[in-house]
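Q: What residues go here?
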């Protein structure tokens, strides 16, 4: 069988909501990405700081001219006097950034979010109601004890008795949506055709206690009923936050609610009240009819399960699709249609506005005419900008912004109007439509998108009178905003320069004067969540280095291939380049075989005698201060060929280093264990095995601290050291520790170990950490504590206990946790495991900040014996009575499915590999490419990276094992690092950060915007270029030459025309990722598919060539038949444009074949003679390329409706064809004579999006993906009795991909370790078949046995989905399948499932869709199913004892064997070439 593994998480944002979730005071943004729930908080960062950081991160400087002199007065003055350039004024506004608090992967597809105010939550915050496909609800809240979410109630409405009539469509075919009462009294889920589930919640205490009860007026206060205890011990007054829910049939509320369109709960009603838009005629009958919709408002009496109709408005336009409840002071509801907006207030009074010329034609409802706006409101989203001013923001489906303004007189709405936001005021910041808008705070909102990056947009208001002054402060390329407090400074400037001073008169003010309000709002982007959704096509290709020098530098650190996909929709179209590992940007490469590690440092030079009198001014003399910016020295421990250990010191240059001589540094003193600076960068400390040497900033020796114990006269060797100014910790080989502090006189002195346990305990390892966040020190509020007071020392004893001391107090530990070797999900001081529970061997611990410049947080990183990493996040449990760390500090284990590589030792080279096993310790790095990160050297070298919007992720560095590494920050290599690999090559390199992210999807992701709708891509290997298919949208013109359709004449002068796609083909050079050639298609012609095919170009010489084949469709409206074209291009070399060497390639047309009937929807190579298979309309034809540029058809097969995919098993002639509605066809193609034969079909009721062959040893499986997200495994077997001699394909199993339905797929070779069980099984199979051949009496088998077929090379299928998730399907050997399917069951029962969802049901095939009623083929599954890799990926979340227990129970020899199997299957390990 097979295993389905998700490689990357979904990135498309489908829902969002803002609520106080973590605590009652917090402001949290909850974001749903199909099946992942993320909880963010917001953080304010000054715009100035943000800009400076971005400038530092971008490898290519941005166009915005930013001058550092802006902030210092002398610089400002000097520049005005010198008049060298117009300066950008320092920007004092703040940016709102998102910071991730928690992330949960759910076994369900989220279809709605709602906030429920509750007084009973554990955290004091509000609860969150989550709706899942098809009709499930979970009420979740934050649990501060577990630092996670807990589920308080679940509601399920998918039972058969709740569904409608027997002839109703399946539940999944209806639009189900969730709405919640703003007063949190109830929520409603509309599901099925016309069912409404009402979930009641306990009213808040104020209602029950009746605080406004007046005994004089209202009579005596009613007595609260005492709760009676029932026989089974439960109280009758239930304490649950919810009451029982019930289901209403909408026609029972009102007989006219037969076809509901949308509903929303309204604000400002004492009882839960909702407005619903509905119709009495079905949507299919409305053609030719007008104004059939009705809007009704109902009040619910939940106790009586009754309702009252408050108002009803009839005769509404047919195209309304949404009800939006508006908060006070506007109130009422806004009905959104495709051509108009209508507001209906509490009394039923209506005001509307038509936004295009079709509003008049489509309705006779009275509307204010604003048709000059020419807007299309399909797919728009609306959110309040400022409810008190009656302003609401509209984001249109193409991303443009508009503002709705309500005219409110007191409490009466007297009208509404729309206006567009000008592009220069940020009206074009969003590239394409959004799926969700959520207001975060007073001046910013979150725009979540399924088709582009999700943005945090902030806005400010330009002051009316500031126009004149503002223009001089700005560079026209920047949109700066001016806050109120800035205005006072501007007044001062006027006093300085006089009223008329205006150095840069820019014609920018036109936006804010012409008609009063247009320039009021200025929008700008504060933050973004990177997204690669939807992945519309992908290919694999090579990256081209731009120069030969760069190529030489990057040997060994670049992958063979990269995954390149076309993603995004509309103007957000872009190309994403994805690699498994970090590919460093190498700046210098050196042979350095003796180096074992590196330490770079920037020490201050000692002050000359003349300056030393002024001791009080520590930073006397400017050059001494600035010299500390870049690293100046590097200490390198070496081992030469004879095994002789020395250390050398080097001076750093721009991108390299040179030996430093003439100092008091002693190379022969031995091997350096650790080095760094202390005493505020004034002392360089070098830790050797036998002593600690201190030097001043010019390597003058100031102190030697020997390790000799004077009492016992033994000299323990130092094994591990950690420096955190002003302390140093040494762990020695006799398991003792040594702690010293540097004092004011810059001398190191050992601290007395007051706690006797410090002397008696055997210590394994430890580290020092400077606690900036205050989570480990007693009080979390003292942010501004002195540096020396918040150093925490963590020690790990040989028995595995974790001790923490708050230095310099060594009298007693502030925290002790004994249970670390059991790696529990939550580590606390009182965690205890049963006796005899298995433990993990812990090699090293490190507490370090992980994050980026926006936000970082300390994590406890545990390195295990085999270089696996466990990451713990510290959190505090709220406790009223105790402030003792041991009770309130807990550590939560974070998910990390990455498994380190085993060391593969060739037999003859044992001694060389010995040193890698003695790998150097983990290295804390404060700033590498803007990340605060930890580097793990050794055989699988990795960075642990985290951005403010992600969890920490372990990313492997491309290349060999690494001996040692250090940050490297010089002028030529800013924020880079230097490392030496196991082959003895040292590289000075950087992490590429321009347009590149890592932690977002756990892989290296570079995103190149193309700013046009991009939907297909292919790689052309001979030229190394990529060809993409794009669309631009143009107004549709009716054919001019038509005489037949007389009615078309009336539409000739239509101003507001529909738009149609116009195709383009672009050639992209990967050396700079720029478009170097564009070919326009005919009008109304779109590109359907692009493939690189190896075609025969000459019939005489049989020469083959890689050519680009393009299939297109010409669609001129539904009245005219669709035509198609097949275009064949070659990529040729030409003379480049001057100054652009990358433009040396062009597309050259080789063949152009018109297809008179039907579009060309799919292309593939076929057979062995270099021919192509073309899916054209309802036929599939085999065509050959002739020398005269025509495509000669040689064989064909009639198809059904629309061929979505054709695939050929390379060189065999076996083909698969997928139809959009009629299932899968398995066919064969022969060349002598040319013909196509149908072998077998699946069910003809299957909507197939993509289909793939999957060879598994000697079996050939067919994998088809349907529109419900089902992955069907089919097989052709003519011997099976039910298959009608093979005419019907056998159905082996079906597995649901859930929220991430695969739409594109590719069969790829699979990389496996040399000792893989899958490989050995197929080798055994082959030998068994060869030996058993003679035992069969059947004469045929004897002849076959000599040529036992060789099993196919291992393969894997890569899928991509519209949510931006990538996944793989790989075959398993029989023993692997049995054990892993048992293992998933055990993991399922051992781990908590968030939101109380069932992963098994989530992966079961969709029983309600077409597949449930018509199986895809003859059932031959025998109860087997595909193994769910998402559950296997949670293996590391289990504690060590449970892991050992399960491994034995399932049939593995031990935890190590589970680890080896999972490493082979999980992640992208099967795609080693990426």
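A:
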């Amino acid at each position: 069988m097979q295993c389905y593994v998700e490689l990357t998480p979904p990135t498309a944002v489908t829902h969002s909501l803002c609520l106080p979730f973590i605590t009652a005071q917090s402001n949290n943004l909850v974001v749903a990405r199909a099946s992942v729930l993320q909880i963010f908080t917001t953080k304010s960062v000054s715009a100035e700081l943000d800009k400076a950081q971005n400038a530092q991160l971008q490898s290519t400087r941005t166009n915005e001219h930013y001058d550092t002199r802006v902030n210092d007065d002398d610089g400002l003055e000097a520049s005005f006097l010198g008049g060298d350039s117009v300066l950008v004024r320092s920007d004092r506004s703040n940016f709102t950034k998102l910071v991730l608090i928690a992330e949960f992967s759910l076994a369900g597809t989220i279809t709605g979010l709602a906030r429920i105010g509750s007084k009973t939550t554990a955290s004091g915050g509000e609860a969150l109601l989550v709706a899942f496909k098809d009709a499930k609800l979970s009420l979740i809240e934050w649990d501060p004890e577990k630092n996670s979410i807990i589920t308080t109630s679940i509601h399920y409405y998918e039972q058969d008795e709740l569904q409608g009539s027997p002839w109703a469509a399946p539940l999944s075919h209806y639009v189900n949506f969730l709405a919640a009462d703003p007063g949190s009294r109830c929520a409603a889920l509309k599901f099925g055709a016309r069912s409404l589930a009402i979930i009641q919640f306990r009213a808040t205490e104020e209602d029950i206690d009746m605080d406004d009860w007046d005994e004089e007026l209202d009579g005596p206060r009613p007595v609260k009923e005492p709760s009676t205890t029932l026989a089974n011990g439960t109280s009758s007054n239930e304490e649950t936050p919810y009451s029982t829910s019930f289901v209403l049939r909408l026609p029972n509320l009102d007989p006219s609610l037969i076809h509901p369109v949308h509903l929303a709960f309204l604000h400002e009603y004492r009882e839960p009240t909702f407005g619903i838009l509905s119709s009495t005629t079905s949507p299919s009958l409305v053609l030719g009819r007008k104004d059939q919709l009705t809007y009704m408002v109902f009040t619910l009496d939940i106790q009586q399960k009754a309702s009252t109709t408050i108002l009803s408005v009839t005769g509404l336009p047919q195209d309304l699709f949404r009800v939006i409840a508006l908060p006070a002071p506007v109130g009422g509801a806004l009905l959104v249609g495709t051509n108009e907006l209508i507001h209906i207030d509490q009394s039923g009074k209506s005001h509307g506005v038509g936004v295009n010329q079709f509003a008049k034609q489509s309705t006779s409802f009275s509307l204010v005419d604003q048709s000059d706006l020419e807007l299309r409101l399909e797919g728009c989203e609306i959110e309040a900008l400022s409810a008190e001013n009656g302003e609401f923001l509209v984001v249109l489906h193409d991303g443009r912004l508009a503002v709705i303004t309500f005219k409110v007189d007191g409490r009466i709405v007297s009208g509404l109007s729309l206006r567009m936001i000008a592009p220069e005021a940020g009206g074009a910041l969003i590239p394409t439509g959004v799926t969700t808008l959520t207001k975060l705070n007073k001046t910013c909102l979150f725009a979540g998108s399924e088709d582009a990056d999700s943005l945090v947009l902030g806005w400010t208001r330009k002051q009316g009178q500031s126009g004149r002054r503002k223009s001089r402060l700005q560079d026209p390329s920047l949109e700066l905003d001016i806050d109120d407090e800035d205005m006072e400074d501007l007044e001062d400037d006027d006093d300085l320069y006089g009223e008329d001073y205006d150095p840069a008169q820019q014609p920018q003010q036109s936006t804010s004067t012409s008609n009063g309000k247009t320039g009021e709002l200025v929008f700008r982007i504060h933050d973004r969540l990177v997204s690669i959704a939807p992945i519309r096509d992908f290919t694999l290709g090579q990256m081209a280095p731009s120069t030969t020098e760069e190529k030489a530098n990057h040997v060994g650190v670049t992958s063979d291939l990269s995954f390149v996909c076309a993603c995004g929709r509309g103007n957000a179209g872009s190309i994403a380049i994805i690699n498994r590992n970090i590919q460093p940007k190498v700046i210098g490469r050196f042979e350095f075989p003796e180096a074992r590690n590196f330490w770079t440092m920037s020490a201050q030079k000692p002050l000359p005698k003349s300056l030393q009198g002024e001791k009080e001014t520590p930073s006397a003399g400017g050059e001494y201060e600035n010299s500390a910016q870049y690293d100046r020295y590097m200490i390198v421990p070496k081992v030469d060929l004879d095994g002789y250990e020395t250390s050398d010191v080097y001076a750093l240059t721009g991108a390299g280093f040179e030996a430093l001589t003439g100092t008091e540094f002693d190379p022969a003193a031995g091997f350096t264990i650790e080095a760094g600076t202390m005493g505020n960068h004034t002392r360089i400390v070098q830790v050797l095995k036998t002593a600690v040497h201190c030097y001043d900033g010019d390597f003058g020796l100031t102190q030697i601290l020997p390790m000799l114990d004077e009492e016992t006269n033994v000299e323990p060797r130092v094994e591990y050291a950690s420096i955190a100014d002003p302390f140093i910790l040494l762990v020695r080989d006799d398991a003792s520790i040594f702690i010293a502090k540097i004092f004011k006189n810059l001398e190191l002195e050992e601290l007395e170990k007051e706690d006797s346990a410090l002397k008696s305990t055997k210590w394994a390892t430890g580290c020092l950490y400077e606690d900036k966040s205050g989570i480990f020190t007693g009080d979390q509020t003292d942010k501004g504590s002195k540096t020396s007071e918040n150093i925490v020392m963590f020690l790990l004893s040989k028995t595995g206990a974790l001790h923490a001391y708050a230095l310099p107090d060594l009298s007693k530990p502030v925290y002790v946790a004994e249970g670390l070797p059991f790696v529990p999900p939550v580590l606390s001081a009182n965690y205890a495991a049963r006796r005899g529970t298995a433990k993990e061997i812990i090699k090293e611990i490190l507490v370090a900040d992980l994050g980026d410049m926006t936000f970082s947080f300390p994590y406890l990183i545990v390195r295990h014996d085999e270089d696996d990493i466990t990451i713990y996040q510290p959190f505090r449990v709220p406790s009223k009575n105790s402030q003792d760390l041991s009770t309130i500090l807990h550590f939560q284990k974070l998910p990390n499915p990455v498994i380190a590589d085993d060391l593969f030792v060739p037999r003859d080279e044992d001694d060389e590999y010995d040193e890698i096993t003695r790998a150097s310790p983990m290295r804390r790095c404060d700033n590498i490419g803007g990340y605060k990160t930890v580097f793990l050297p050794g055989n699988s070298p990795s960075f642990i990276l985290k951005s403010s919007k992600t969890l920490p992720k372990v990313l492997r560095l491309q290349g060999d094992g690494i001996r040692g590494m250090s940050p490297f920050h010089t002028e030529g290599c800013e924020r880079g690092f230097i490392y030496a690999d196991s082959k003895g090559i040292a590289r000075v390199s950087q992490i590429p950060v321009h347009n590149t992210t890592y932690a977002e999807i756990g892989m290296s992701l570079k995103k190149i915007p193309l700013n046009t709708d991009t939907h297909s891509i292919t790689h052309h290997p001979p030229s190394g270029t990529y060809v993409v298919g794009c669309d631009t949208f143009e107004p549709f013109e009716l054919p001019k030459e038509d005489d037949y359709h007389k009615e078309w004449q009336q539409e000739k002068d239509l101003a507001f025309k529909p738009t149609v796609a116009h195709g383009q083909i672009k050639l992209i050079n990967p050396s700079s990722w720029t478009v170097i050639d564009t070919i326009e298609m005919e009008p109304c012609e779109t590109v359907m598919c692009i493939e690189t095919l190896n075609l025969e170009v000459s019939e005489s010489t049989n020469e083959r060539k890689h050519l680009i084949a393009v299939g297109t469709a010409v669609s001129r409206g539904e009245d005219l038949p669709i035509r198609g074209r097949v275009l064949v291009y070659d990529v040729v070399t030409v003379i480049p444009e001057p100054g652009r060497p990358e433009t040396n390639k062009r597309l050259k047309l080789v063949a152009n074949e018109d297809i008179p009937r039907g579009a060309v929807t799919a292309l593939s190579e076929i057979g062995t003679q270099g021919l192509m298979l073309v899916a054209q309309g309802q036929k599939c034809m085999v065509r050959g390329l002739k020398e005269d540029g025509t495509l000669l058809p040689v064989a064909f097969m009639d198809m059904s409706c629309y061929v979505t995919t054709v695939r050929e098993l390379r060189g065999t002639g076996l083909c698969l064809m997928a139809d959009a509605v009629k299932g899968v066809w398995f066919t064969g193609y022969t060349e002598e004579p040319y013909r196509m034969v149908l072998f077998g079909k699946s069910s003809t009721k299957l909507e197939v999006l993509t289909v793939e062959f999957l060879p598994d040893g000697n079996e050939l499986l067919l994998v088809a993906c349907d529109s419900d997200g089902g992955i069907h495994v089919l097989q052709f077997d003519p011997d099976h009795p039910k298959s009608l001699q093979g005419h019907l394909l056998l159905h082996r199993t079906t597995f649901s991909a859930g929220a991430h339905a695969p739409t594109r797929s590719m069969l790829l070779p699979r990389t496996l370790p040399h000792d893989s069980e899958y490989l050995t099984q197929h080798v055994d199979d082959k030998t068994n078949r060869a030996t058993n051949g003679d035992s069969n009496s059947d004469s045929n088998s004897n002849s076959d046995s000599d040529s036992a077929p060789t099993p196919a090379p291992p393969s894997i299928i890569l899928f991509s989905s519209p949510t931006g998730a990538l996944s793989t399907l790989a075959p398993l050997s029989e023993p692997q399948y049995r054990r892993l399917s048992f293992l998933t069951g055990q993991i399922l029962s051992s781990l908590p499932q968030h939101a109380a969802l069932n992963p098994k049901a989530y992966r079961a095939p969709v029983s309600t869709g077409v597949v449930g009623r018509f199986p895809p083929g003859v059932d031959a599954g025998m109860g087997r199913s595909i193994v769910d890799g998402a559950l296997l990926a949670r293996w590391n979340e289990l504690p060590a004892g449970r892991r050992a227990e399960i491994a034995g129970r399932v049939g593995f020899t031990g935890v190590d064997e589970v680890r080896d199997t999972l490493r082979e299957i999980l992640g992208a390990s099967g795609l080693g070439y990426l």
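A: Context that may help when evaluating the design: DSSP finds 22 helices and 89 strands in the chain. The radius of gyration is 35 Å.
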